[in-house]
Design a protein that fits this description.
The protein is of the alpha/beta class and about 210 residues long. The protein has helices at about 15-30, 45-55, 60-85, 95-105, 110-120, 125-130, 140-150, 165-180, 195-205; strands spanning about 5-10, 35-40, 90-95, 130-135, 185-190. The structure holds adenosine-5'-diphosphate and magnesium ion.
């Protein structure tokens, strides 16, 4: 796992943060050095950009979200992920530009090709093709909402989580289309936390 870039993807509430924490613990127990982040958090400026993105009271175009996410990713990739990979550390991340293909592409209608082109230009080949990636999937909208609400309340109305059932369902089917087109394994997140983690480990070790 040394020097690998590992991405856990999935819609809100599917369990990414929970599983990322377990993976971090697992690596630490094996004395494998790692850095972890949850996009678009990762550097001080990225965290500020995230606050803007997440603030649903700030109206903007889907293209603006693409540019904001790309700016955050540029900083994280250059200042956190790449230096770690160069030192043969493992990089584990919740989300990647795959989220933008789903949210701004499949769900909001931006061209998948331009999302990929712009992202690649401001990150690199390695970022757009992680060594290992997987998608956590929860088909039932009610289960996703239960988990989202369980995480606690947000200060501002969230940009994406408050868009309603139709949008959330577009995200779900967008993730399945993405999985197909990029050959990314899908993990059923409607299992116990431990069962999901065992599947994640099996993807990492194959
Ligand atoms: P994400 O980061 O994908 O939004 P989280 O990891 O924050 O999701 O999980 C959302 C909520 O669901 C948390 O309260 C978490 O404890 C709970 N949760 C995560 N995985 C499971 C699971 N497999 N079964 C039941 N609850 C879960
Ligand atoms: Mg999370």
């Amino acid at each position: 796992m040394k020097g690998k870039y590992i991405v856990i993807e999935g819609a809100d509430g599917t369990g990414k943060s929970t599983q990322l924490a377990l993976l971090a613990e697992h690596l630490a127990s094996k004395n494998i050095e790692y850095v972890e982040f949850s996009e678009p958090d990762g550097t001080p400026i990225s965290n500020e950009i995230r606050a803007i993105i997440k603030n649903g009271s700030l109206e903007r175009e889907a293209e603006t979200n693409l540019l904001l996410f790309t700016a955050a990713r540029h900083e994280i990739w250059k200042h956190v992920a790449l230096p770690a990979l160069e030192q043969d550390k493992c990089v584990i991340a919740s989300r990647n530009y795959y989220s933008t293909l789903v949210y701004q592409g499949y769900a909001e209608g931006l061209s998948l090709k331009s999302i990929e082109t712009i992202t690649r230009e401001f990150t690199g080949d390695r970022y757009v093709n992680p060594d290992i990636s997987m998608i956590l999937s929860l088909p039932e909208h009610s289960t996703r909402m239960k988990r989202i609400n369980h995480r606690g309340t947000l200060k501002n109305v969230d940009t994406f989580e408050n868009k309603g059932v139709e949008f959330q369902d577009k995200l779900h089917s967008g993730y399945l289309s993405l999985a197909k087109s990029k050959n990314i394994p899908v993990i059923d997140a409607n299992q116990s936390i431990d069962a999901v983690f065992l599947e994640i480990l099996s993807k990492i070790h194959t």
